[in-house]
Design a protein that fits this description.
The structure is a homodimer. Chain A is of the alpha/beta class. Chain A has helices spanning about 5-10, 15-20, 35-45, 50-60, 80-95, 110-115, 115-120, 130-140, 165-175, 195-210, 225-235, 250-260, 280-285, 295-315; strands at about 65-70, 100-105, 125-130, 145-150, 160, 185, 215-220, 240-245, 270-275, 290-295, 320-325, 325-330. Chain A binds a DNA duplex through helix 2 and helix 4.
DNA sequence: CTGAAAGCGCTTACAG
DNA sequence: CTGAAAGCGCTTACAG
């Protein structure tokens, strides 16, 4: 790594002069034009990067907690908005005590990005969307700073999860209460164990009822995926009379397919989705979407709170919190009296 | 600000001992339990925060460019996804040379957050969604680091904008080419001058055509806003036969209102929106939405590129780039032969 | 026009 | 069980 000293040595100047020029104060401090030129050229040639840490340290600025948020950079990026919203409001409420860095990564490659070295650069970490493989890496690593996992289970780290069982249970119970017979499930490939819990509990609860075994179609976690999956369901005889989707994206895609096929919702088929998207979108699609609502903003705030508490007490004892996931009845599966669950 | 030295002085210990305990290595280094306890208590009492900069500096880690992204923390937060996506991919493509911090702020309060002091903590800045008042603050300030404004005009700073004129022009031309007579406009209150350009150009171009003056309704920039605005339009006689919406949110809300009122799209009314949302959502709503598409991801990448170039050459000369905004015809306003514009 | 020196807060290898 | 010392890279007040 090139430093100011290196440049100074190369040009037989003092670090002071180099510093002044590189900060753009050469003219004001009357450094010879030619000297300035040589310094800039050498800086570029050596690929000099100012060390921002040294700068900050030198200025002794009021310390902030540096929080790193690891988020996967695939199509789940649009789920980041709500999570960030929660963090943002928490940060502002706390008088900007925290500086938030977003670190993108690819699943199964967390180990390349979250290293012992990188951990030194932050006070605490929130890890979102790790794959099973990433989780294995985490379970076998020792980082000596507070870490909280969002939406994952672990004994080693603090966790903020939601009630995955209820997410699967509620739709099954509601469909049963509505006297449905032919359930269907549009699910995306499980990227973490919680998703299996949701769909397994759903299927188990269905089997406990008087309904048929659900038709289960695996689709990609996009609107296109939901659209394609719903078209598949339309070919079935009989048509399913109720449908559980594991994400808003899937449900929204399905809505379009059913509309195009002339299938009426909820008359012919009721739909409940896992409400992981924007609530506004769930309300303003046609028909509006009944969901088991995921409290992403609150969970984000809780992640920050756990880290904040750890940091201020110097106690890194893992703490786990599971959030309830309330059912919100809308047009795609209206509330009846019976579903006081 | 409490430092390790302060704690050491208070307890008549050396900074070394305090450092060891606070890092959680007390047991391994066999520091007396009682000493550890006293250190932790004093640290909490004094509200000690480890100075992460000193830590990093001491470890002499490979330097990264620290980029701060200022983004308003209101309902525009959901627009951050696409922008971030662009930045994320750029960061990953560049081998993680950059560390990205997200700084939330409230409009008209940029001056409280983006201060001379805060500027020291970063290598370069991307500023998004400043209000006119925030812009005034920026124009009257001197920050000696590279800054790029996203979607704002300035002579002082680098800018990455889109072609606001075309955004207003295209819909007017297309509606004219389709022989429409009764145009309408659902617009949110302008939060920056570019928005006025879009709607003014639209209205001007309409006045140049054979159409009536457009009915213009100001609504909030949400689906609810679009829904309410569209209901207002439904009461008009004659019903507008074409509609320009200044955001996807507004258009999506309007779609629901028209659906509920039994108004057929595009037969009775064609709709074109400013495509600032997720393209997938524009495709899978009913009917799919024709938009003037905003290349947010590309613009984000360009912001980073400008900063990156400035940083590596030590040249902070403002640079301005405007991106084209292509029209994407979908069901809400299908392409005809005529609109080869 | 340029340089020598001090110090920001922390950690670690070494000494005792 | 604890401490003294050096040094990470930078900037600035001061000296010449």
């Amino acid at each position: 790594m090139t430093t100011i000293k290196d440049i100074a040595a190369r040009l037989e100047l003092s670090p002071s002069t180099v510093s002044i020029v590189l900060k753009g104060n050469g003219d004001r401090r009357k450094i010879k034009k030619e000297t300035q030129q040589r310094i800039l050229e050498t800086a570029m040639e050596l690929g000099y990067k100012p060390n921002i840490q040294a700068k900050i340290l030198r200025g002794s600025l009021s310390a902030k907690y540096n929080i790193s948020l690891y988020w996967v950079s695939d199509n789940r990026i649009h789920l980041l908005s709500r999570f960030l919203k929660g963090l943002q409001t928490a940060i502002m409420d706390n008088g900007y005590q925290f500086q938030l860095s977003i670190v993108p990564y690819e699943n199964n490659h967390l180990m390349d990005i979250l290293t012992q070295e990188s951990v030194i650069t932050t006070n605490a970490i929130i890890i979102c969307n790790p794959s099973e493989f990433d989780m294995e890496y985490l379970e076998n690593s020792e980082f000596h700073i507070p870490i909280v996992l969002y939406n994952r289970y672990s004994k080693k780290y603090s966790t903020v999860t939601m009630d995955d069982k209820t997410i699967g249970l509620l739709p099954a119970k509601i469909f049963a209460a509505h006297g449905k017979k032919h359930p269907a499930l549009l699910k995306s490939p499980a990227t973490f164990s919680g998703m299996n819990i949701r769909t397994n509990v759903f299927e188990f609860q269905i089997s406990e009822s008087e309904m048929e075994r659900p038709v289960s179609v695996i689709v990609e976690d996009t609107m296109r995926g939901g659209y394609v999956g719903a078209l598949t369901l339309c070919d079935l005889n009989p048509l399913p009379d109720c449908l559980f989707c594991t994400s808003d994206s899937i449900a929204l895609g399905a809505l379009k397919a059913f509309y195009e096929q002339g299938i009426r919702i909820p008359d012919q088929i009721e739909i409940i989705s896992v409400g992981n998207g924007r609530p506004e979108q769930e309300e303003y699609c046609v028909p509006s979407l009944s969901v088991v609502s995921l409290p992403l903003e609150d969970m984000a705030r809780e992640c920050l709170k756990i880290l904040s508490d750890s940091l201020s007490t110097f106690q890194y004892i893992p703490k786990s919190i599971a959030f309830p996931t309330p059912y919100i009845a809308r047009e795609s599966c209206p509330a009846l009296q019976e579903n006081a669950l």
